[in-house]
TrEMBL record:
InterPro entries, sorted: Clarin (IPR026748)
Name of the protein in its database record: CLRN1 protein
Assigned protein family: Belongs to the clarin family.
Transmembrane segments: 97-123, 135-155, 189-209
Membrane topology value: Multi-pass membrane protein
Keyword annotations: Membrane, Transmembrane, Transmembrane helix
Cellular compartments annotated: Membrane
GO biological process, one term: equilibrioception
GO cellular component terms, A-Z: membrane
């Protein structure tokens, strides 16, 4: 492939990596990771609410990695409540998983920036054969994609397996019990998925530019090596 086309491909990959870093940083600071509806089970059972009456006992909840908001509704109107994970909810959430998600988000940002820098360096500079060359580009893309996948797996397990929404809804609730009526992942969670796909796309762009995967060997080199061995 001509050098000019390689520069264009590396520039595109660098811009995509930088956009992933910005997107992940923005996603960390929002509360739009999960949104859902919570049912005041105790209040609904007390009045035997059904149909449209049940809507008076359904509140809202949305949260991110650091803070969130819930609207507590038990038949007397909505009462919004702000909360933060650190230190308010630290005792009731799976702290190790939650902290791991934050750490992997940080690692994703760092390696997305590294990938963007080295893509641009390979486009306009003189690439080295180690971490600056194709091996490094594959490495940054692989680590970024892996971190994105780990973030989604860990956070999904925290929400679905450990019932994070119900734990938040029932925090410091004495006489009322809340149950998750519905929940879904919001925009910030899907930003991480897009970033993972972008890093995978960058690896394909490197291959499209004409660079083989670092661990693959060409047939010509194997043939030459075999001929040399026969000489000895």
């Amino acid at each position: 492939m001509p050098a000019q086309q390689k520069k264009i491909i590396f520039c595109i990959a660098g811009v995509l990596s930088f956009a992933c870093a910005l997107g992940t940083a923005a996603a960390i600071g929002t509360q739009r990771w999960v949104k859902g509806m919570i049912l005041c089970k105790t209040g609904a059972l007390l009045v035997n609410a059904t149909g449209q009456e049940l809507e008076k006992f359904i509140g809202k909840i949305q949260y991110g990695l650091f803070y969130g908001e819930r609207v507590r509704q038990c038949g007397l109107g909505g009462r919004p409540l702000q909360f933060s994970f650190f230190p308010d909810l630290l005792k009731i959430i799976p702290a190790s998983i939650h902290v791991s998600v934050i750490l992997f988000c940080t690692v994703l940002i760092v390696f997305a920036l590294l990938g963007a820098g080295f893509f641009m360096f390979n486009a306009f500079g003189s690439p080295y054969e180690t971490l600056h060359g194709p091996v490094g580009l594959y490495l940054w893309s692989f680590i970024g994609c892996s971190c994105g996948c780990l973030i989604m797996i860990l956070f999904s397990s925290e929400v679905k397996i450990h019932h994070l929404s119900e734990k938040i809804a029932n925090f410091k609730e004495g006489s009322f019990t809340f149950k998750t009526h519905s929940e879904q992942f919001a925009n910030s969670f899907w930003v991480i998925l897009v970033c993972s796909l972008v890093h995978f796309l960058n690896a394909l762009l490197i291959r499209f530019a004409g660079f083989q995967f670092p661990f693959s060997k060409s047939k010509d080199s194997g043939t030459i090596t075999g001929a040399v061995d026969l000489m000895y």
